[in-house]
Every structure is written in structure tokens, then in C-alpha cells.
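CATEGORY: protein folding

GOAL: derive C-alpha cells
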Amino acid sequence: MPARLDPVVTDRPHGLVLVLRVGTPVLAIDPVAVGAKVTAQAHACGWSALLTAERLDARGWNGGGTGVRPRAGGRPAGARRIP
């Protein structure tokens, strides 16, 4: 089912893995300001579209880009597909 979805935003490590597994682009948000489980999982998957809580405020994203420029196919350069 997630393969037919638009890009996904998740704050759960298992959500990140499941969505990447089917090839759907995802923005991972780690609810811990300095980064914790979601950050660790994103790094383990080679995924760099990640924000931590300190980059968010009550209105949402508080400026700045992720620095990620997806290539054709929806994956940032260097990201690997999860088998």
C-alpha cells in the first residue's frame, strides 16, 4: 500500500524503514532535539532527508533546508535501497 502514496512524513523509526522499503520518498522527523532513534535509523539506511525537533517550532519547520536534493527516482544521492 505505501508504494502508491505521495511522499510521507514520519516521526517513527519503523515508519521510516517501511516507507523506504517500498521506495516512497520520506521526510523523517526525530522528536528528540539532539536526535535519537529516528536519526540513528535514517543514518543506518543512508537517508539524509531528516529534521530534528530543534529545527521545528509550533508553526512547523522553522527555516532552512535539509540540504537534500533528490535525484530522479526520489532518493538523495548516496541513499541506498533497503532490500
In short: The radius of gyration is 12 Å. The longest strand covers residues 26-30.
